Amino acid sequence: MTTATTTDSQTATTALCAVRPRVPVDRLVTDLVPPRHFANARFATYRANPAHPSQGRALARLTEIAQEIAAPRRGLFARRKPAPAVYLDGGFGVGKTHLLTSLAHAVGEALGPVHGTSSAAYGTFVEYTNLVGALGFLPTVEALAAKKLVCIDEFELDDAGDTTIMSRLMRELADRGVALAATSNTLPDALGEGRFAAQDFQREIKALSDRFETLRVDGEDYRHRDVVTDSEPLTDGDVAAAAARPGATLDGFDDLLAHLATVHPSRYGALLDGVSVVALTGVHAVTAQEVALRLVVLVDRLYDRDVPVLLGGSGDTRGLFTEEMLAGGYRKKYYRALSRLGALAEEGRKLV
């Protein structure tokens, strides 16, 4: 459940800063499904660009993997065959998440529910690490071992603890015959590069890398970030006026950034329950990396839920992160966020 300033879902929530999301533990498991933005994503709706043949190859291979997971295992040695483990690597905006959610849908629809829930689990990297923190390691293994497929989106290791947790979790699931699939903007043997002392954890990183069949997905950002970020910025007055609608929130940018520091990133999705538009005044460049990374997670959850944004202040998403950030170890996260935020901001402008 989520506590907010209102109880009527048809009434605008005053501000995200007023929301203190409380997520029951059982919801952490039941929420492991493809997000709203990809509810209709299927292999048949993925449009592979013939100019980038790797897209078609990835589509064909994932279709095979879905059939392999869904097919019943027969014979004396069927259990000894390792379950598939696939890793989609490529830039932002090339359709990796579309492919991953299509795989989850295909397996879930082919096998039907298991104990009342989907046979495929789907979540972001931070959601799985938070699940371990909330349930404990062994209960998490037991909960996910009941699935036929576990999908991990945005697989990027930001600290040594996450490296160890995810390496061990995947090993346990793979040993129990659970298929694994992940997306990232970083090749599995380069996870953690530029972010922490990766050389001290090469064994764990190599263990992760060795478990996956890597599928490269090349292409251009289909959200056309260079286009959607060139619009004229909105004034704070425009933003405040446009936020006067049901389901909209209105926050000062600095206030929201401060509030995000008080909410665990795994709860940012719950923070947006019932929200149809997010309006922000006083938007400016973010200079602290820990603040920027929290903002990246919020942008991802906004994108998952197709929530348009209204950006006042500078309103220039291109200058949201510093040049140093865009050249550092988290650069692919930041560029993904800019791509997604630009698309959401363009949707927000249509409301003005």
TrEMBL record:
GO terms for biological process: cell division. Pfam families: AFG1_ATPase. It comes from the Bacteria. Keywords: ATP-binding, Cell cycle, Cell division, Nucleotide-binding. The keyword RNA-binding does not apply. Gene3D superfamilies: P-loop containing nucleotide triphosphate hydrolases (3.40.50.300). The keyword GTP-binding does not apply. This is Cell division protein ZapE. It comes from Promicromonospora umidemergens. The gene is zapE.
